[in-house]
């Protein structure tokens, strides 16, 4: 069947079977490989994308469900201010080593920082609990997200 | 060599980050190959069974299925893997690419489906009918070593695949004569690497050129190629291995696994590209496990806590198949156990058992247990004798003047500052004020772990320990026609930041800016044949080879520059950020020449070269590092354990570290913290669990729990670095010691806290349930620290 | 790990849903948030012929305060419950428990209806529904009925709907003024499902004595028991430390009979003892930090 969905702001028609996972369709049919698959069980969080602006595990959705919905991946068109701030802070704070889990973390926090501009570290840690990273020990990731949040507040204050 | 190290030592953010953060990285599964078929492996549901029959008819009938092969089919194309280095006490083992008539563990290979996509392949797998005759399984290493045990590998006639004995001095005589003999036990649970990117590969066979290209996340592209050509009956020139971005490896991506070899064979057989992406269940069931080891030490001590002699008994569970010589992991524990302690009379006995479980291999700090065993033994001695644990360490520690020191395990220890790191750690953690105590809700403890981290492993180490292979590394540097410096070594990154740090090393070695150095890695065709990334050898072997090569580049460029400037010699000339300068006291003066000018001459105006200098600017240099380099550190942590729940909280964690010259503090800090986190995750949470029938009960991330952000405390890292006296730039290597220290520091802190209630734990992981039982049921009480 | 093929149906109204469910019966599963269902499909623990996607049925996506309680549509996401001011006013504990489910991304998708029908013994929403004696509004081709969740939830992973029935919404009864509810979750590791959840609903009489006490405990792989009648003899007694100690003893004894006394069972019971005491103190107003009151 052919479904029509909005991916990164563009309407895309794609042939799928109902049992195809969104993560596979993004990667294999739409060539959007920034969305990584780490467990296919919704635990590691590497495949997190935004569905209608909110984070969701792409491995826990069937692509067919996305007909008429908007999916945003890390490749996503014009990056949001949150994503830009996160990228800069992740670079400065060395918040990724192998980088495989990173897209899921960036997508999650692009939404979280947008919705929680005054977040504190406890809140950030609680949300980051949904993403596994095997390289960094998480400390630099927390520092980077807090730095991005602070930078966004600074911009907002100007 | 160079006038100064301008870029080594700078905390430069990584150049790799851009592509990772933009979603532009390319891991294996991101690489599109037109027409590629997808493979899936049918795996044994049993821990041990005879394959009676396999019927693939229904699978082949499914539209989209190209072929289904069994072990018997593939045996025609691929030779067996034989692991039989000439090591005394090691029994040779052999395995086919896929089992033919018997499966040895749950997850073992039974058949491989190749289909249009993974969905079809998995549908087809369900249609394969396999008749198994279940056999009794042995899933416990001690049971496996009993005479009446089921045999895992019948060809061996025993499950004892390796037994190694080493003696220095006469430890038995010391034990017999000692005022006291103190025994301690340590049991580390089975773990697995669990990189967030699982394994996977894409194989393409070009029938016209008779050439195989394998794209695979690998730590060791060249040694992997060697394995492939041997097993497939090809020549080295017929295989290219390339490792793109790798989503973590931690030792799991070294061996040539059977799945990957089967994919290569199938690509050749079908003449079409074949790809395989391991799923998480396969990864946890059947990729590679690690660390399941039991140790018992017996220490002859005097009343002051001095160790007069020491023996180590060690048993390791190697699983069902040997991808490595079975002695190799435990042996390093035996070799380095005594670390910085002056113990002349020492012996070890290692026994390695086969069981009906997934095969094991090295995992980040394969010798990690050594520090826990040594430091845990010292703590037991201190508790038995009523002495201060730090004081017992001081009494046994080698004085700095005693270095270099011939360790009883056979290697030579040098360039460490163990007393300095320990005393600094004691100050920083507030040791003097600490006493283990109980406030009614919590038990409080403090743990110390001195670590001597063996790194690098030069060829002499392999020769000494009888393991085949080499520890050298190779570097190639090309100054391109436009003056760009392209550098490569035979290593492959999986997050270590080589592209950034090696550029810093080359920049200093040549005298250019890091931004003018391109580092390309991981391709067997374009990188020189090297030994890859393992054993903390990246900085010393890789960086060392590059630095030495870069120095040759610099010398060559300066000779060329001198000629261009009409000079007979290079005296007074230097290279700074790509410009040829006159080196003057207090500064430098431009000559007007730069590397791009010289490159143009070398490539396009060879007649302008000095007599005897050949056109072009390509350089190759190998480097064989010392048998081992040693970093050292002291880990210290304060913990509290809730009486009510047994939950452990780490109140303070610090590392005082000497890892030699630091190329990039940002990267090194990341590696150290990451290693500590992995050590903590293993100590507190991770556990591969098999039941008695050999069924794996931990094959999802819901069951095999690895640390989340909530499990890892803030980690303070304090540098007390001294350079190595024997390596280029004084590099030593790091990135594994954090694992070693974390296990020992936390386990020792827990036992310090538990000492308040007279309890001890000797088994990992330190789960709340285990600690709760220790506190309330007295489990483990008097299990450790008996005088024998 | 890929799901087996199935036919996909995406519906817009409850009426369509009821009709299709009647036609397909057990061959169809309902896909709401999918946070538990999809992993089961991916692991092929479940192989339905039909999957009915209800995510578009907006009439099931509402939170409404009603005369006799709070009605929450089956499709309401956990994050919506966790951030809902209405829920915060009427049932603060429910709001807090929703916020503790899984993780941020999972809460964006997971639904209350899906969680109640799945009836995972370690899950938050079923426990809350048991504690507050919530009733499910069920529709089928035969019509509408309501049923107590306590009656429907028979055993782990078994919410006994009749053939062709779907959950449309869940009603949490209006609570008396003097009700305090507290829950404590215990995770063995930070990333794991809770090993233990205990929840207390305590209603005081005008004199401060016990007018009603309900305790639900999720521990081990058993259907969380609702403990209520076993406290009838304590009515009118002030919930002081002595009484709370007695309650804890009864709860621990009761749970011990259910989850067994092996090492893991003994451990959970021991932790339960402490958590239960904490919960009861909170519900009795005997602590500054009533965990969720």
Automatic annotation (TrEMBL), chain A:
Keyword terms, alphabetized: 2Fe-2S, Iron, Iron-sulfur, Metal-binding, Oxidoreductase
Database matches in Gene3D superfamilies: 3.10.20.30, [2Fe-2S]-binding domain
Entry-linked InterPro entries: 2Fe-2S-bd (IPR002888), 2Fe-2S-bd_dom_sf (IPR036884), 2Fe-2S_ferredoxin-like_sf (IPR036010), 2Fe-2S_ferredoxin-type (IPR001041), 2Fe2S_fd_BS (IPR006058), Beta-grasp_dom_sf (IPR012675), Diverse_Oxidoreductases (IPR051452)
The species this protein was found in: Gluconacetobacter tumulicola
Residues forming coiled coils: none
Pfam families xref list: Fer2, Fer2_2
GO molecular function: 2 iron, 2 sulfur cluster binding; metal ion binding; oxidoreductase activity
Domain of life: Bacteria
Stored PROSITE patterns: 2FE2S_FER_1 (PS00197), 2FE2S_FER_2 (PS51085)
Extent of the signal sequence: none
Protein name stated in the entry: (2Fe-2S)-binding protein
Domain 2Fe-2S ferredoxin-type: 1-77
Automatic annotation (TrEMBL), chain B:
Signal sequence range: none
Alphabetized Gene3D superfamilies for the sequence: Aldehyde oxidase/xanthine dehydrogenase, a/b hammerhead (3.90.1170.50), Aldehyde oxidase/xanthine dehydrogenase, molybdopterin binding domain (3.30.365.10)
Keywords (A to Z) from UniProt: Molybdenum, Oxidoreductase
Classification of source organism: Bacteria, Pseudomonadati, Pseudomonadota, Alphaproteobacteria, Acetobacterales
Domain of life: Bacteria
Name of the protein in its database record: Xanthine dehydrogenase family protein molybdopterin-binding subunit
Aldehyde oxidase/xanthine dehydrogenase a/b hammerhead domain: residues covered: 22-136
Pfam families, alphabetized: Ald_Xan_dh_C, MoCoBD_1, MoCoBD_2
Molecular-function GO term, any one: oxidoreductase activity
InterPro entries: Ald_Oxase/Xan_DH_a/b (IPR000674), Ald_Oxase/Xan_DH_a/b_sf (IPR036856), Ald_Oxase/xanthine_DH-like (IPR016208), AldOxase/xan_DH_MoCoBD1 (IPR008274), AldOxase/xan_DH_MoCoBD2 (IPR046867), AldOxase/xan_DH_Mopterin-bd_sf (IPR037165)
Coiled coil, from the record: none
Keyword Oxidoreductase appears in the UniProt entry: yes
TrEMBL record, chain C:
GO MF annotation: an example: oxidoreductase activity
Keyword presence, Flavoprotein: yes
Any Pfam family hit: FAD_binding_5
KW Flavoprotein (keyword) present: yes
Positions in coiled-coil regions: none
UniProt lineage: Bacteria, Pseudomonadati, Pseudomonadota, Alphaproteobacteria, Acetobacterales
Domain FAD-binding PCMH-type: 1-177
Protein name: Xanthine dehydrogenase family protein subunit M
Entry keyword set: FAD, Flavoprotein, Oxidoreductase
InterPro entries, sorted: Diverse_Substr_Oxidored, FAD-bd_PCMH, FAD-bd_PCMH-like_sf, FAD-bd_PCMH_sub1, FAD-bd_PCMH_sub2, Mopterin_DH_FAD-bd
PROSITE patterns listed in its UniProt record: FAD_PCMH
